[in-house]
Amino acid sequence: MSLLQTLVKPYSTVARLLDTVSPLFDLMVRLWVAWAFFKSGLVKIQSWDSTLMLFEYEYNVPLLSPQLAAWTGTAAELGLPVLVALGIASRFSALALFLFNAVAVHAYGSFLFSSEGAAGLQQHILWGTMLLITVFHGPGKLSVDHLLCKKC
């Protein structure tokens, strides 16, 4: 047995194991990032007056009135994570949530780029990266998209 064959066998075993658990990893990534945004949407609807005030005085959302930005942002935070979590139109919904995340960083940028907001900025970077995993690699086998594509 050559050195190459000796190295390939354990590598192949590990690769098969990772291939087996990768759909679970894909699902965990989708659920984690979806939960982060969904929780934020729930907070917004629990105190709508505070939400409107934040959009009027704190957030700097371009092109939209504060009221429209609040409604749109809350709808995005409640609807898109459900699609991402279930794996429905996954790449599109993950991309839409990624863009929403980018707008949130811009809208709240002055705070996020301060020393007090550095941890929040890191969270947004993590969420954006997790969303891009789904955008570029798809939702994985544990998704509605995979079931639908399998039947087509």
- List the uncertain runs: none
Which range does the strand content fall in?
under 5%
Question: What is the total tally of β strands?
Answer: 0
> What does the radius of gyration come to?
20 Å
- Helix-strand pattern: HHHHHHH
Assign a percent range to the helix content.
over 70%
Q: Judging from the principal axes of the Cα atoms, what is the shape?
A: elongated
Average pLDDT confidence is: 92
Biggest sheet statistics: none
Class based on secondary structure composition and strand pairing: mainly alpha
Terminal Cα separation, in Å?
45 Å
Q: If helices are DSSP runs of H or I spanning 4 or more residues, what is the number of helices?
A: 7
What does this structure look like?
- The structure is a single chain.
- With 152 residues, the protein is an all-alpha fold.
- Helix content is 82%, strand content 0%.
- The termini are far apart.
Any descriptors?
7 helices; mainly alpha; 152 residues
Brief synopsis:
By secondary structure, this protein is an all-alpha fold.
Write the layout of secondary structure elements.
Layout: H1 3-46, H2 48-57, H3 66-86, H4 90-107, H5 109-112, H6 118-137, H7 144-151
